[in-house]
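Person: Show me a sequence?

Helper:
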Amino acid sequence: MRALPDGAYETAAEMAIALRAGETTAVALTERALERATAWQVSTNAFSQLWPDQALARARLIDAARANPGSLAGVPVTIKDLFDVEGETTTGCCRAYEMRVAAGTATVVRRVLDAGAVPIGKTNQHELAAGGTNLVSACGRTGNPWDPARMTGGSSGGAAATVVTGVAPIALGSDTGGSVRIPSSMCGTFGLKPTTGWLPTDGVMPLAPSMDCPGPLGATVRDLTVAYGVMSGGRREPVSLRPDILTPVGPLRGFFAEDVHRECLAAVDDVLAVLADQGMAIAEPAGDDTESRRVLERTRSVWNRACFPEFAAAHQDIDRDLVSPQPRSWMERGEAFTAGELEEAARRRREIRAWFLDRLERVRALVVPTCPYPAPRADQRRVELGSGRIIDVDEIGPGWLTCSVNLAGLPAITIPAATSSDGLPIGVSLIGKPNEEATLLVLAALWERTSGYRPRRPSTGSGGSIP
Protein backbone atom coordinates (compact mmCIF):
# COMPACT_ATOMS: atom_id res chain seq x y z
CA MET A 1 0.00 0.00 0.00
CA ARG A 2 1.29 3.48 -0.88
CA ALA A 3 2.43 5.81 1.87
CA LEU A 4 -0.46 7.83 3.21
CA PRO A 5 -0.51 11.45 2.05
CA ASP A 6 -1.12 14.39 4.34
CA GLY A 7 -4.83 15.08 4.66
CA ALA A 8 -5.93 11.46 4.31
CA TYR A 9 -7.47 9.77 7.35
CA GLU A 10 -6.30 12.42 9.83
CA THR A 11 -8.91 11.95 12.58
CA ALA A 12 -9.54 8.83 14.63
CA ALA A 13 -13.05 8.60 13.18
CA GLU A 14 -11.73 8.76 9.60
CA MET A 15 -9.08 6.16 10.39
CA ALA A 16 -11.63 3.74 11.85
CA ILE A 17 -13.89 4.03 8.79
CA ALA A 18 -10.97 3.61 6.36
CA LEU A 19 -9.68 0.56 8.24
CA ARG A 20 -13.08 -1.14 8.19
CA ALA A 21 -13.40 -0.40 4.48
CA GLY A 22 -9.95 -1.80 3.73
CA GLU A 23 -8.75 1.54 2.41
CA THR A 24 -5.71 1.60 4.68
CA THR A 25 -3.98 -0.53 7.28
CA ALA A 26 -2.92 -0.13 10.89
CA VAL A 27 0.69 -0.49 9.75
CA ALA A 28 0.35 2.38 7.26
CA LEU A 29 -1.22 4.62 9.89
CA THR A 30 1.46 3.70 12.41
CA GLU A 31 4.31 4.23 9.95
CA ARG A 32 3.01 7.70 9.13
CA ALA A 33 2.61 8.53 12.81
CA LEU A 34 6.20 7.48 13.52
CA GLU A 35 7.51 9.46 10.55
CA ARG A 36 5.74 12.57 11.75
CA ALA A 37 6.89 12.00 15.32
CA THR A 38 10.51 11.86 14.18
CA ALA A 39 10.15 14.86 11.89
CA TRP A 40 8.57 17.02 14.60
CA GLN A 41 10.76 15.92 17.51
CA VAL A 42 13.53 18.41 16.76
CA SER A 43 11.16 21.38 16.99
CA THR A 44 8.71 20.20 19.66
CA ASN A 45 10.60 17.62 21.76
CA ALA A 46 7.15 16.19 22.37
CA PHE A 47 8.26 12.64 23.17
CA SER A 48 10.14 11.31 26.15
CA GLN A 49 10.01 7.81 24.63
CA LEU A 50 9.28 6.54 21.11
CA TRP A 51 8.33 2.88 20.58
CA PRO A 52 8.65 2.18 16.82
CA ASP A 53 9.27 -1.56 17.09
CA GLN A 54 6.50 -2.20 19.62
CA ALA A 55 4.04 0.03 17.73
CA LEU A 56 4.63 -1.64 14.37
CA ALA A 57 4.41 -5.11 15.91
CA ARG A 58 1.06 -4.24 17.47
CA ALA A 59 -0.18 -2.72 14.19
CA ARG A 60 0.68 -5.94 12.33
CA LEU A 61 -1.30 -7.98 14.83
CA ILE A 62 -4.30 -5.69 14.39
CA ASP A 63 -4.10 -6.01 10.60
CA ALA A 64 -3.79 -9.80 10.89
CA ALA A 65 -6.91 -9.95 13.06
CA ARG A 66 -8.85 -8.43 10.12
CA ALA A 67 -12.02 -7.89 12.11
CA ASN A 68 -10.60 -4.77 13.87
CA PRO A 69 -13.23 -5.12 16.62
CA GLY A 70 -12.25 -2.20 18.85
CA SER A 71 -13.51 1.36 18.40
CA LEU A 72 -9.89 2.56 18.26
CA ALA A 73 -8.46 -0.39 16.32
CA GLY A 74 -5.34 0.72 14.45
CA VAL A 75 -5.54 4.34 15.65
CA PRO A 76 -2.19 5.78 16.80
CA VAL A 77 -2.28 7.32 20.27
CA THR A 78 0.27 8.89 22.58
CA ILE A 79 0.52 8.49 26.36
CA LYS A 80 1.74 11.04 28.89
CA ASP A 81 4.82 9.87 30.79
CA LEU A 82 3.00 9.44 34.08
CA PHE A 83 0.77 6.56 32.96
CA ASP A 84 2.06 3.05 33.60
CA VAL A 85 2.46 0.73 30.62
CA GLU A 86 3.68 -2.70 31.64
CA GLY A 87 7.35 -3.23 30.86
CA GLU A 88 8.00 0.43 30.03
CA THR A 89 9.46 3.12 32.26
CA THR A 90 7.20 5.69 33.88
CA THR A 91 9.46 8.64 34.66
CA GLY A 92 7.24 11.70 35.03
CA CYS A 93 10.14 13.27 33.10
CA CYS A 94 12.13 13.29 36.34
CA ARG A 95 15.60 11.82 36.84
CA ALA A 96 14.52 10.36 40.19
CA TYR A 97 12.28 7.89 38.30
CA GLU A 98 14.32 7.25 35.17
CA MET A 99 14.82 3.56 36.07
CA ARG A 100 11.24 2.91 37.23
CA VAL A 101 9.77 0.10 35.09
CA ALA A 102 6.01 -0.38 35.37
CA ALA A 103 4.88 -3.79 36.62
CA GLY A 104 1.36 -3.25 35.26
CA THR A 105 -0.71 -0.97 33.04
CA ALA A 106 -2.94 1.86 34.24
CA THR A 107 -6.64 1.03 33.90
CA VAL A 108 -7.41 3.93 31.55
CA VAL A 109 -4.48 2.92 29.34
CA ARG A 110 -5.59 -0.71 29.39
CA ARG A 111 -9.05 0.32 28.22
CA VAL A 112 -7.52 2.24 25.31
CA LEU A 113 -5.33 -0.73 24.40
CA ASP A 114 -8.29 -3.09 24.63
CA ALA A 115 -10.09 -0.86 22.11
CA GLY A 116 -7.28 -1.58 19.66
CA ALA A 117 -5.29 1.66 19.78
CA VAL A 118 -1.60 1.64 18.84
CA PRO A 119 0.54 3.59 21.34
CA ILE A 120 3.62 4.98 19.62
CA GLY A 121 5.34 6.44 22.66
CA LYS A 122 5.20 8.49 25.82
CA THR A 123 4.99 12.26 25.78
CA ASN A 124 7.11 14.88 27.46
CA GLN A 125 5.57 16.74 30.38
CA HIS A 126 6.30 19.29 33.04
CA GLU A 127 8.43 17.39 35.55
CA LEU A 128 6.23 15.30 37.88
CA ALA A 129 3.26 17.28 36.44
CA ALA A 130 4.19 20.02 38.91
CA GLY A 131 3.65 23.04 36.67
CA GLY A 132 1.66 24.48 33.80
CA THR A 133 4.41 25.48 31.35
CA ASN A 134 6.37 22.35 30.28
CA LEU A 135 9.52 24.45 30.62
CA VAL A 136 10.85 22.13 33.36
CA SER A 137 11.57 18.53 32.38
CA ALA A 138 14.47 16.11 32.65
CA CYS A 139 13.83 15.52 28.94
CA GLY A 140 14.15 19.22 28.09
CA ARG A 141 11.28 21.62 27.53
CA THR A 142 8.65 21.16 24.83
CA GLY A 143 8.27 23.64 21.97
CA ASN A 144 4.96 24.92 20.68
CA PRO A 145 4.34 23.56 17.15
CA TRP A 146 3.33 27.04 15.96
CA ASP A 147 6.54 28.61 17.25
CA PRO A 148 9.13 26.47 19.08
CA ALA A 149 10.35 29.55 20.96
CA ARG A 150 6.99 29.58 22.78
CA MET A 151 5.76 27.32 25.54
CA THR A 152 3.20 24.58 24.95
CA GLY A 153 1.66 24.99 28.37
CA GLY A 154 1.52 21.99 30.62
CA SER A 155 1.80 19.68 32.15
CA SER A 156 0.46 17.64 29.20
CA GLY A 157 2.39 19.79 26.73
CA GLY A 158 3.91 16.95 24.76
CA ALA A 159 0.50 15.31 24.45
CA ALA A 160 -1.03 18.46 22.95
CA ALA A 161 1.88 18.87 20.53
CA THR A 162 1.42 15.34 19.18
CA VAL A 163 -2.25 15.95 18.42
CA VAL A 164 -1.74 19.37 16.83
CA THR A 165 1.07 18.14 14.59
CA GLY A 166 -1.03 15.22 13.35
CA VAL A 167 1.20 12.55 14.88
CA ALA A 168 -1.83 11.02 16.63
CA PRO A 169 -5.46 12.14 16.70
CA ILE A 170 -5.81 11.17 20.38
CA ALA A 171 -3.49 11.64 23.35
CA LEU A 172 -3.86 10.63 26.98
CA GLY A 173 -3.15 13.40 29.47
CA SER A 174 -3.97 14.33 33.04
CA ASP A 175 -5.41 17.45 34.66
CA THR A 176 -4.83 18.44 38.30
CA GLY A 177 -4.74 22.21 37.86
CA GLY A 178 -5.44 22.60 34.15
CA SER A 179 -2.85 20.24 32.68
CA VAL A 180 -5.04 19.01 29.81
CA ARG A 181 -6.80 22.30 29.13
CA ILE A 182 -3.79 24.64 29.25
CA PRO A 183 -1.69 22.95 26.54
CA SER A 184 -4.79 22.19 24.47
CA SER A 185 -5.50 25.92 24.50
CA MET A 186 -1.96 27.08 23.81
CA CYS A 187 -1.33 24.52 21.05
CA GLY A 188 -4.83 24.55 19.53
CA THR A 189 -6.85 21.38 20.03
CA PHE A 190 -9.69 19.93 22.12
CA GLY A 191 -9.10 18.73 25.67
CA LEU A 192 -11.43 17.32 28.31
CA LYS A 193 -11.05 17.34 32.09
CA PRO A 194 -13.72 14.93 33.36
CA THR A 195 -15.44 15.12 36.74
CA THR A 196 -12.81 14.44 39.36
CA GLY A 197 -13.01 10.85 40.56
CA TRP A 198 -14.85 9.45 37.56
CA LEU A 199 -11.84 7.96 35.75
CA PRO A 200 -9.60 5.60 37.75
CA THR A 201 -6.12 6.84 38.65
CA ASP A 202 -4.46 3.52 39.46
CA GLY A 203 -1.18 3.28 37.60
CA VAL A 204 -1.02 7.07 37.23
CA MET A 205 1.91 8.84 38.89
CA PRO A 206 0.29 11.20 41.42
CA LEU A 207 0.55 14.95 41.77
CA ALA A 208 -2.32 15.57 44.21
CA PRO A 209 -4.55 12.47 44.50
CA SER A 210 -7.61 14.43 45.64
CA MET A 211 -7.56 16.41 42.37
CA ASP A 212 -5.71 14.18 39.87
CA CYS A 213 -7.83 13.47 36.82
CA PRO A 214 -6.94 11.58 33.61
CA GLY A 215 -8.37 13.12 30.46
CA PRO A 216 -8.13 12.87 26.67
CA LEU A 217 -6.96 15.36 24.07
CA GLY A 218 -8.42 15.01 20.58
CA ALA A 219 -8.20 16.45 17.08
CA THR A 220 -12.00 16.77 16.88
CA VAL A 221 -14.90 16.58 19.29
CA ARG A 222 -15.86 13.20 17.88
CA ASP A 223 -12.35 11.87 18.55
CA LEU A 224 -12.47 13.34 22.05
CA THR A 225 -15.86 11.74 22.66
CA VAL A 226 -14.71 8.31 21.51
CA ALA A 227 -11.55 8.53 23.61
CA TYR A 228 -13.48 9.60 26.69
CA GLY A 229 -16.00 6.81 26.19
CA VAL A 230 -13.25 4.23 25.97
CA MET A 231 -11.41 5.63 29.01
CA SER A 232 -14.71 5.51 30.90
CA GLY A 233 -15.11 1.83 30.17
CA GLY A 234 -18.23 2.52 28.10
CA ARG A 235 -20.18 3.72 31.14
CA ARG A 236 -21.18 7.10 29.67
CA GLU A 237 -24.22 7.43 27.41
CA PRO A 238 -24.21 10.17 24.75
CA VAL A 239 -26.59 13.10 25.13
CA SER A 240 -28.72 13.90 22.11
CA LEU A 241 -28.76 17.44 20.80
CA ARG A 242 -31.94 18.91 22.27
CA PRO A 243 -32.48 22.61 23.00
CA ASP A 244 -33.97 21.89 26.42
CA ILE A 245 -30.74 20.17 27.39
CA LEU A 246 -28.47 22.88 26.08
CA THR A 247 -30.08 26.14 27.13
CA PRO A 248 -29.04 28.40 28.51
CA VAL A 249 -25.29 28.88 28.77
CA GLY A 250 -23.59 31.80 30.40
CA PRO A 251 -20.24 33.58 30.51
CA LEU A 252 -18.39 34.20 33.76
CA ARG A 253 -17.01 37.71 34.01
CA GLY A 254 -15.36 39.28 37.07
CA PHE A 255 -12.34 37.15 37.97
CA PHE A 256 -12.49 35.44 34.57
CA ALA A 257 -12.33 38.78 32.72
CA GLU A 258 -9.62 40.50 34.78
CA ASP A 259 -5.93 39.99 34.02
CA VAL A 260 -6.94 38.36 30.73
CA HIS A 261 -5.70 39.23 27.24
CA ARG A 262 -8.21 41.17 25.17
CA GLU A 263 -8.10 38.57 22.37
CA CYS A 264 -8.93 35.78 24.82
CA LEU A 265 -11.94 37.77 26.02
CA ALA A 266 -13.00 38.35 22.42
CA ALA A 267 -12.81 34.60 21.79
CA VAL A 268 -15.33 34.01 24.58
CA ASP A 269 -17.74 36.46 22.97
CA ASP A 270 -17.24 34.78 19.60
CA VAL A 271 -18.11 31.36 21.02
CA LEU A 272 -21.22 32.77 22.68
CA ALA A 273 -22.23 34.40 19.39
CA VAL A 274 -21.90 31.08 17.52
CA LEU A 275 -24.06 29.31 20.10
CA ALA A 276 -26.59 32.14 20.12
CA ASP A 277 -26.88 31.89 16.32
CA GLN A 278 -28.16 28.35 16.88
CA GLY A 279 -30.95 29.66 19.07
CA MET A 280 -29.34 29.02 22.42
CA ALA A 281 -30.11 31.45 25.22
CA ILE A 282 -27.17 33.31 26.75
CA ALA A 283 -27.66 34.17 30.41
CA GLU A 284 -25.27 36.15 32.58
CA PRO A 285 -25.17 34.49 36.04
CA ALA A 286 -26.48 37.01 38.57
CA GLY A 287 -24.02 38.75 40.85
CA ASP A 288 -21.08 37.18 39.06
CA ASP A 289 -18.62 40.08 39.03
CA THR A 290 -18.68 40.93 42.73
CA GLU A 291 -18.97 37.38 44.00
CA SER A 292 -16.30 35.98 41.70
CA ARG A 293 -13.77 38.54 42.88
CA ARG A 294 -14.52 37.71 46.50
CA VAL A 295 -14.64 33.93 46.19
CA LEU A 296 -11.94 33.37 43.59
CA GLU A 297 -9.33 35.88 44.68
CA ARG A 298 -6.19 34.06 45.77
CA THR A 299 -7.52 30.86 44.21
CA ARG A 300 -4.01 29.88 43.22
CA SER A 301 -2.85 30.02 46.84
CA VAL A 302 -5.79 27.79 47.82
CA TRP A 303 -4.81 25.33 45.10
CA ASN A 304 -1.19 25.40 46.29
CA ARG A 305 -2.25 24.51 49.83
CA ALA A 306 -4.43 21.68 48.51
CA CYS A 307 -1.81 20.33 46.10
CA PHE A 308 1.64 20.78 47.59
CA PRO A 309 1.23 18.69 50.78
CA GLU A 310 -0.26 15.79 48.76
CA PHE A 311 2.55 16.14 46.22
CA ALA A 312 5.21 15.97 48.93
CA ALA A 313 3.57 12.92 50.52
CA ALA A 314 3.22 11.11 47.20
CA HIS A 315 6.95 11.42 46.45
CA GLN A 316 8.39 11.35 49.96
CA ASP A 317 10.70 8.38 49.34
CA ILE A 318 12.56 9.65 46.27
CA ASP A 319 16.01 11.22 46.06
CA ARG A 320 15.16 14.91 45.94
CA ASP A 321 18.64 15.75 44.68
CA LEU A 322 17.42 14.24 41.40
CA VAL A 323 14.35 16.49 41.28
CA SER A 324 14.56 19.87 39.52
CA PRO A 325 14.53 22.94 41.79
CA GLN A 326 11.01 24.11 40.91
CA PRO A 327 9.08 20.87 41.69
CA ARG A 328 11.38 20.30 44.67
CA SER A 329 10.35 23.70 46.03
CA TRP A 330 6.68 22.63 45.78
CA MET A 331 7.46 19.61 47.97
CA GLU A 332 9.29 21.74 50.52
CA ARG A 333 6.52 24.31 50.65
CA GLY A 334 3.93 21.54 51.03
CA GLU A 335 5.71 20.24 54.10
CA ALA A 336 5.88 23.72 55.64
CA PHE A 337 2.16 24.59 55.65
CA THR A 338 0.59 24.76 59.10
CA ALA A 339 -2.51 22.83 60.12
CA GLY A 340 -4.41 26.12 60.25
CA GLU A 341 -3.42 26.96 56.67
CA LEU A 342 -4.57 23.56 55.45
CA GLU A 343 -7.90 23.85 57.27
CA GLU A 344 -8.48 27.28 55.74
CA ALA A 345 -7.66 25.91 52.29
CA ALA A 346 -10.18 23.09 52.77
CA ARG A 347 -12.83 25.61 53.78
CA ARG A 348 -12.10 27.80 50.77
CA ARG A 349 -12.17 24.77 48.51
CA ARG A 350 -15.70 23.94 49.65
CA GLU A 351 -16.72 27.57 49.14
CA ILE A 352 -15.36 27.61 45.59
CA ARG A 353 -17.23 24.42 44.69
CA ALA A 354 -20.47 25.81 46.15
CA TRP A 355 -20.00 29.05 44.20
CA PHE A 356 -19.68 27.18 40.89
CA LEU A 357 -22.61 24.89 41.63
CA ASP A 358 -24.79 27.88 42.48
CA ARG A 359 -24.10 29.42 39.07
CA LEU A 360 -24.67 26.11 37.35
CA GLU A 361 -28.17 26.05 38.81
CA ARG A 362 -28.95 28.98 36.49
CA VAL A 363 -27.15 27.85 33.33
CA ARG A 364 -26.27 24.49 31.81
CA ALA A 365 -22.63 25.44 31.17
CA LEU A 366 -20.31 28.32 32.00
CA VAL A 367 -18.11 29.84 29.30
CA VAL A 368 -14.67 31.27 30.19
CA PRO A 369 -11.22 31.86 28.69
CA THR A 370 -9.03 28.80 29.18
CA CYS A 371 -5.79 30.73 29.69
CA PRO A 372 -5.14 34.40 30.49
CA TYR A 373 -3.11 34.85 27.28
CA PRO A 374 -1.88 33.00 24.17
CA ALA A 375 1.37 31.05 24.48
CA PRO A 376 4.23 33.31 25.64
CA ARG A 377 7.86 32.84 24.62
CA ALA A 378 9.70 30.40 26.83
CA ASP A 379 11.89 33.21 28.19
CA GLN A 380 9.09 35.77 28.47
CA ARG A 381 8.37 37.08 31.94
CA ARG A 382 5.79 39.78 31.16
CA VAL A 383 2.75 39.77 28.88
CA GLU A 384 0.90 42.81 27.54
CA LEU A 385 -2.86 42.21 27.77
CA GLY A 386 -4.02 45.27 25.84
CA SER A 387 -4.56 48.95 26.63
CA GLY A 388 -1.14 49.06 28.24
CA ARG A 389 -1.98 46.45 30.90
CA ILE A 390 1.06 44.25 31.66
CA ILE A 391 1.23 41.18 33.93
CA ASP A 392 4.03 39.00 35.24
CA VAL A 393 3.68 35.38 34.07
CA ASP A 394 5.31 34.14 37.28
CA GLU A 395 2.45 35.72 39.24
CA ILE A 396 -0.39 35.07 36.80
CA GLY A 397 0.58 31.79 35.21
CA PRO A 398 -1.06 29.70 32.48
CA GLY A 399 -3.24 27.92 35.08
CA TRP A 400 -4.59 31.12 36.64
CA LEU A 401 -8.10 30.47 35.31
CA THR A 402 -8.16 26.66 35.30
CA CYS A 403 -7.21 25.59 38.83
CA SER A 404 -10.48 26.72 40.43
CA VAL A 405 -12.30 24.08 38.36
CA ASN A 406 -10.01 21.42 39.83
CA LEU A 407 -10.69 22.67 43.34
CA ALA A 408 -14.41 22.33 42.57
CA GLY A 409 -13.98 18.89 40.97
CA LEU A 410 -16.07 19.83 37.93
CA PRO A 411 -15.82 18.74 34.28
CA ALA A 412 -14.56 21.21 31.68
CA ILE A 413 -13.73 21.10 27.99
CA THR A 414 -11.52 23.51 26.09
CA ILE A 415 -12.13 24.20 22.41
CA PRO A 416 -9.69 25.79 19.91
CA ALA A 417 -11.89 28.84 19.55
CA ALA A 418 -9.72 31.47 17.89
CA THR A 419 -6.34 32.53 16.56
CA SER A 420 -4.48 35.53 17.95
CA SER A 421 -3.10 38.39 15.87
CA ASP A 422 0.28 36.64 16.23
CA GLY A 423 -1.13 33.44 14.73
CA LEU A 424 -1.32 31.58 18.02
CA PRO A 425 -4.23 29.40 19.20
CA ILE A 426 -6.68 30.65 21.82
CA GLY A 427 -8.85 28.26 23.81
CA VAL A 428 -12.24 28.81 25.41
CA SER A 429 -13.54 26.50 28.13
CA LEU A 430 -17.02 25.21 28.91
CA ILE A 431 -17.54 24.23 32.56
CA GLY A 432 -20.37 21.88 33.48
CA LYS A 433 -22.18 20.26 36.36
CA PRO A 434 -20.72 17.11 37.93
CA ASN A 435 -20.97 14.09 35.60
CA GLU A 436 -22.31 16.14 32.69
CA GLU A 437 -19.35 15.66 30.36
CA ALA A 438 -21.74 14.56 27.63
CA THR A 439 -23.48 17.93 27.69
CA LEU A 440 -20.14 19.71 27.31
CA LEU A 441 -19.19 17.44 24.41
CA VAL A 442 -22.49 18.16 22.66
CA LEU A 443 -22.01 21.89 23.15
CA ALA A 444 -18.49 21.65 21.78
CA ALA A 445 -19.75 19.66 18.80
CA LEU A 446 -22.41 22.29 18.14
CA TRP A 447 -19.75 25.00 18.14
CA GLU A 448 -17.46 22.87 15.96
CA ARG A 449 -20.14 22.21 13.36
CA THR A 450 -21.56 25.73 13.31
CA SER A 451 -18.20 27.48 13.16
CA GLY A 452 -16.94 25.16 10.42
CA TYR A 453 -13.87 24.27 12.45
CA ARG A 454 -11.41 21.76 11.06
CA PRO A 455 -8.06 20.89 12.63
CA ARG A 456 -5.26 23.04 11.27
CA ARG A 457 -1.66 21.92 11.40
CA PRO A 458 1.59 23.88 11.03
CA SER A 459 4.05 22.83 8.35
CA THR A 460 6.53 20.27 9.61
CA GLY A 461 9.50 22.02 11.10
CA SER A 462 8.15 25.42 10.05
CA GLY A 463 9.36 26.97 13.29
CA GLY A 464 12.79 25.34 13.26
CA SER A 465 14.32 23.70 16.29
CA ILE A 466 13.81 24.61 19.94
CA PRO A 467 16.03 27.62 20.67
User: Anything to note?
Assistant: The radius of gyration is 21 Å. The first strand starts at residue 47 and ends at 50.
